[in-house]
Structure formats: structure tokens, C-alpha cells
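User: I'm putting together a teaching handout on how multi-component assemblies are represented. Below are the sequence lines for each component of a complex, exactly as they appear in our records. Could you produce the 3D structure of the whole assembly as C-alpha cells, so the students can see both representations side by side? Please keep the chain order the same as the input.
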Amino acid sequence: MVGIFLFIRGKLRLGDANMGIFTRFFRNNRDKLADRHMSEPSNEKERPSSKKLSENVKYILDAFHQSNDLKIRVLKKGDAALLYFESLAEHEKIHEKIFAPIEMGHTEDVFHLPNAKQTNDLEEVVRTLLRGHAIYMEEGKKEISQFSVTSSFGRTPEEPQNERVVRGAHDGFVENMMTNINLVRKRVEHRDLTIKYFKLGKKTNTNVAVVYMDGIADPMIVQEIETRLHSLDSDMIHSPGHIEEFIEDKSNSPFPQMLNTERPDRVAANLVEGRVAIMAEGSPTTLIAPATFFMFYQAPDDYNMRWFTGTFVRLIRLFSFIIAVTLPAFYIAVVSFHFEVIPDELIIPVKASINEIAYPPILEALVMVIIIELIREAGIRLPAPIGQTIGIVGGLVIGDAVVRAGLVSNLMVIVVALTAIASFVVPSNELSTALRLLTFPLIILAGTIGFIGIVFGMLFIIIHLTRLQSFGVPYFAPLAPLSLVDLKDTFVRLPMYMMKLRPKDAHAVKPIALNPSREWKNRDEQNQSKQGSGGNDQPSSTDDTTK
Amino acid sequence: MKKYLIAGIVSLLFLTGCWDERQFKNVKLVLSLGFDQGEEGQIIQTVSIPSVSRATEGPGSESLQILSTSAHTPLQARGKIDRMIPESYDPAKVKVIVLGEDLAKQDIYPILDDMYRNPRSNLNAYLAVVEEGTAQDVISMNHTGATRISNYISGLLEAAVSSTHATGENLQLLCAELLEPGIDFSIPLLKIEDDGNLLTFSGMGLFHDKTYTGEKIGAEQTTLYMLLQGEKGRVARLTKKIDDHGKDEILDYITVSVAENDRKMKIENKDGEIAVTINLDMKVKIVEYPSDHLYVKGRIEEIGKKLSKKLTDESVDIISQVQEANSDVFGIGRRVKAYHPEVWKELDWREEFPEISIEPKVKVEIIQHGIIN
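Assistant: Of course. Below is the structure of the complete assembly, with chains in the same order as your input.
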């Protein structure tokens, strides 16, 4: 019995020691960070604790402005106090870590509990209290013990709603960053997977992690991301979307320059390609940088399909880009400038459908596009049953009634509906919204100068795309600059065993991703040809030695 | 500075006002155009304008308005017609242009000038000449064949092209032949029959330079005429009389479908005299031959020889018609100009063409005879 206890205690101590090193490292890191840019004086200096319990308690209470959820339990008839935030700490954990060992009689002194951590710094105590620790202080002693008793409410790693796949992993990131890192580490079991913590937000003190594969990811890019994160000086950081705007290259561009994902498999794959992931506490979304335009058209499903189908859906998606951006503009240009291009067989039906519409096509299109956006925006945050009603009212009733009333031609309804569907085909929500926004300038250009307007608009968009960079990496790669090898995973999805090199745009240090993996195929073919030739001796064959 | 620039650009946006906009809903489409010879050198232009009204379900109802006016030039006529209709009409989607016979016998280029000058006109439009009638009759005819006269005529012509009866020449293809002296052309002829209810393709009208000669290759002969020009549509079927049994007329005939045709034209210059040989090698399939007995040895070769002779005779006939009309549809002049420029310089081709010797040689080889013997 005693042996077992000793064993457990020993183990506990060991674990504690490890944790101590870890937290010290963590603290150092954080303090360095604080030195660098935390301007608030109270965070900066150390405040040694006094021997008087009342002074210490008063200091802590003042630090939290007498906040009501800070609980003080007076112990030992006023000689000791246990402080914790009842909103952060878990009663069961307090019992388990502090009172249970004492009751079991291992030790009389709380300071000697194996899971306690000592400090003399009241400022540190303030910080650890905020992290959900409980602290124990005694009259006449300078040491303060801290116990980690944080309660956390986390959901289970469910499949993200916005990135569902048919085949493949069905787990997703959650709000707890440790869980997220755990999910990634489970997938990339390698010592090169490096994680760097940052504390961002002067008031929120959000934990941010930069995750990358050392030895694959370009150190310059990692350095650049770290520099940009360091220079971020804001009171509040609450999500990666928030961080994104601070560190992206061009925030005036409609195109997202970092990939958002909630899927651990996607993050893992991108890490191994040599990209860098940025995670934040409290948000399941992970940023992946550097990103290219075509990354937003890749979906995890592609890699679980056969490569023909994978290529087919890729092409469909890229085609949808063209539809989503240009179809309404094209239609408007045709019916208000260049009706010669309508095929002879269609000319009368088209004419019949738009003949008696009161408004010019450009107004028609703007009205319809805005209606679609209204329906989408109205339905997006509503609970599912009401959302369906909105869909029916919006889609069927408005769509049909608007045509019957002669306000909008039925061709325009078809065009706008197709455009909306095409914009939803993009796997990334960010790019999808960007595409819907890009439709408007093109509609206006097409309505003013026809096809020439579309050409100018597209030219402008493409020039912008080619000039755009994401962390020093060309955004429109591999098209500009052209890299034929990298087309293997953009317009098409070639078989996995042909993806021997990592994409160049990630600037991976180690370019080779896989060595020849289908050697057995050659062997089989050789065997077959040998059999086919009726067992004749073929001295040139290398397999002769096996005979 | 930047503020003014932005304000300037924004205000420009409001100024544009879509100056060259052509709203499709605001134009009247004209799908078929007709020109006739009027009095005192004027021309008569006839247009059919379909007006469609929207229906909530299914195709809208359609009504046709046929307008005719006489003027000095086609564009003047267009202006006159514009004054008769709401909105204005746009010939950008014209499918067929029909010319009356009287008008076609004069220079047709002035009628088409506007079509070539205007970048928006439809150069895919077919051209046809009405035999013994006016374009006005055709455009305004009360037909039952198709919903619109433009569909009727263009459908008729397309069918003629695919069955190797007509060349399917549109305004674009015609342009070079119209303006070049070394080559002439022929245009499909249409004829109104059955008291104005039926339109038929009645052959190819031979043109000399820019005018209709009045001579035509009859509808029966047009297939061979096309093959002699080296053109074959999707199907080329020839029905010929090769036997003379005497009892049953139907047994004398054979129908072959041309599988391959290879036309070679050889132009020789014999001391300034141009001699042309047209070799036409055809591989044909027998598709109809009620007299049968094809299994008999040598029968097929015999039929081939008979057909060769028959077709050579007919070709001589066609060529003499062409020469009589002085219509160099084979483009012999073009080749003479290219290969024998010194002869071309001395010749007046218009005078010379009817005189030169053109010798056709048709060789028929039968390669199939269907699934029965």
C-alpha cells in the first residue's frame, strides 16, 4: 500500500518538475514578450510579497478592483487564506489538489503539497489567478503556493460545419488551443513540429501559437510572421480573423491572403508542405500562411477521391470562379451592347423574355444580386427551421413573383441564380464572399461600356492578383510566376505518387516530399513480360538473380 | 490632391450615361430582308419584323409585321421603314437576304454595300434569288412550313447545302467572289409554288461578275454541279437512269451515294490557248437499285462504267451551260492568273472563258452496295 503511494507521489513529483520547467520557460518567454511591448506598468514590475497576510490579500483585492467573483476562503482561524476566482476555478479540483491530500494525511503543510508551485511575486500571483489558479497564503510566510485548478468547458472536436467532407477525417478544431495542438501533433508525430507561444492583446492576453515544421518551413517566413505578430499592439485580440488583418500584406485587397480552416488534417498537410499555421486560444479557426489563390480551391475531399474525379471537381470549381465573377456582367453586356453574339435560335426567346421589362438590365441585375445577398444574409444566422422558410419565401416566392410581375426577366433570374450557386462552390467562405463582391464592379463596367468594360475589369483583377503577395510569396503562383511542375495540384489533381516536390510557392527548405514509391510496379511488369515471352531466358533482366 | 482626384473619378461615373448602349429590348429585329427592282431605278425593300410578347410560362406569342417601301438606296429604305414602326429596326441578326430576279439581273453590289461597311451586320446571312418572282412575294408569303419566313428559307438552304445542292454561300464568302474578276459564283434560286404556299429550291443561278445571267443549273443537276466544284455536303445522292429494260421504268434507275469525291483540275497552256481538264474520281455506294442481280460477276464494274459515262455526259452538259452563261464558277480564271500570269495579262477573261475547252472526266468506283446483294 505504502509502496504504491510512494510510487504515485514520486511520479507526481516528476510530473511536477517537468511542468515547472515548462511553465518557467513559458513564463520567461512571456516576460520577454511583456518587456518588449507591454506598456502598462502594473504588468511589468515585480512586487515582492510581504510576510503579512492581510497586506497580500489587500494587494490582490485591489489589483482586481474588488471583483466579486474573487473568492477568499479563510483557513486556520484567520492565519491562512485560499484565493481563487470562482468563475475560473473548479471546486472539485480544489478539493482534489489541496484538501484531499491533507485529509489523507500525507502532509500537514499546504506548502509541501506536490502539485504546489511557490512564488514570492504578487504580480505573478495576479496573473496566475487570471489563468484560473488558486493561491494559498499564510500569515508570517512570504511564499505563496499556486495550484492549477482551471475549469474548462470545451466541446468535443466535431466536424466543422463549414468544411464538411464526404470521405476523410471528421474531427475539427475547438475553442481550446491545447486540444487543437494536440490534434495536430497526433497527425504530425515528428520532432520537427515546432510550436511557439505568443501573448497578444494587452487586455485580453490571448494565447497565440505559431506552428511550423522546422527544417521544412522557410525560416524567413517564420521570422516574418513572428515579427509581424510582435509588432501587433492592440488591447483586444479575439480570433485569428482579428489577427489576420493586422499581419496580412495588403488589407485593401478583396482576396484573403491567409487560408482559414478548422480542419486538423488540412493544417497538418499544409504544415508538411512547409507552410506556417497560426492558432489562437478561444477560436477553432486556424490561419495558414503563406497562401496562394489556388489553395482556396483545394478541398480535403479532393485527396480522398480518385484523381480523375478530383481533377474534375477542381476544374468545376475553377470554372465556377469565372461564372461567379463574369456571368451577370457578360449577360448585361450582351443584352445592352452586343446582342449579335446571341445564337440565331435563341434570339427570339431572349427577346421575348426581356422585351417588356421596365428597367435597363444593369438595374435589373443589381436588384437581383442584392435580393440574393439579402436572402443569404437573412438566412445565414437563423435557426434551421426559420432559415428554410426564408429560403422558400426568398427563393421561390420572390423569384417567381418578380418574374410574373414583369419586374425582372426570367433570364436575369437564371443568370443571377447561377452566379450565386457558382460563388458557393468555392470551398473557402472568405474567397466566396470576395467573389460576390467582385461581381458588382464588373456589372457596372459591363453596363457602361459592354465587353470592353469586362475586359478592363478582368485585366485589373488579374493585375492585382499577380502583384499580390502573401508573406513574400507570390499570391497567383503557380500561374504567375509560371511553374509548370506546380500545376500538378492546381487545375488538376495528379495522383499522389506524382507529387514528388512540395509546391514552390511555400518556399519549403526541403523540396522533395516523397521518393519513388511505386517501384514494385516495374517489378511486376518485368515479371509479366517474362511470363509473356514463354519463360525464355532474358539475360538483361535484373530479376534473374532471384532464381 | 488625392481627394480631388477621387471626387473627379466618382463624378465621371455619373457622367458616362452609356452613350453607345444598344438595349436589346429597344430594337426591332429583322430576320429576313428582301430587295426588288422598283420603278424609276428605285429599289423596293421588304422586311418582316417579328414582335414577341412575354408570357409567364412557355414561349411568348409572336406576330409578324411585314413592311415594304421603295427608295433609292437600302439605307434610305431603312430610314423610311423606321418611320413606320415604333423603335428602330436592326439588321444585325438578318438571316436571309432575298433578291428579286429583276434586281439580281443588275449589279447586286450596291444593295449589299451597307452590309459590308457596317461592322455590326451579320455576314453569316444567306443570299438567295427568287426565280420568276419578287422578294416581296417570298417575304410576305403565307407559308405553313415554319413559324418564320427567315427560318423557312434558311432551313431550306441549309438542307440544300447538306444534301450537296447548294454551296451555302453567305455574305462573307461571297465578298471575294463578288469583287474578284477571276472567279464567279452561283446563288440558290427559290421558286414560289402551289399558289404562294410553298417555296422550293429550284437550282443554282449562275452569276457573271456581279449580275445574274438568268441561266441556272436545275435542281436535279446541282449535285453533280457541286461535285464538279469539288464540294460535297453531308450527303450527296445521285439518281441516274442507266438501263433501258423497257418494261418497268423504275428498274432502269440507280441511286448512288457518294462516299468520297476527289476533283482535280488541270489547266494547260497551249500557246496561249487555255485547256482545262476536270478529273472527278468518286467512290460511291449503291443505295437503291431495284433491278438487283449485283452478285453477277462483272455487274458492279459494268454499272460503274455506265455511271461514269452517264455522269461525264451530264458534266459536259453542265459545263456548256456554265460557259454559255459566262460564269466562271470553277475559278479557272483565278488559277490562270496564278499559274500563267503572262497569258492572263494578254487575255480578256470575260471574252475568253466561253471559248476555252473544258473537258470533264468522271470516274465512278462502286465500293458498297448495302447489306443485300
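A couple of points students might notice: Residues 26-219 of chain B form one domain. Chain B has a mean pLDDT of 86.
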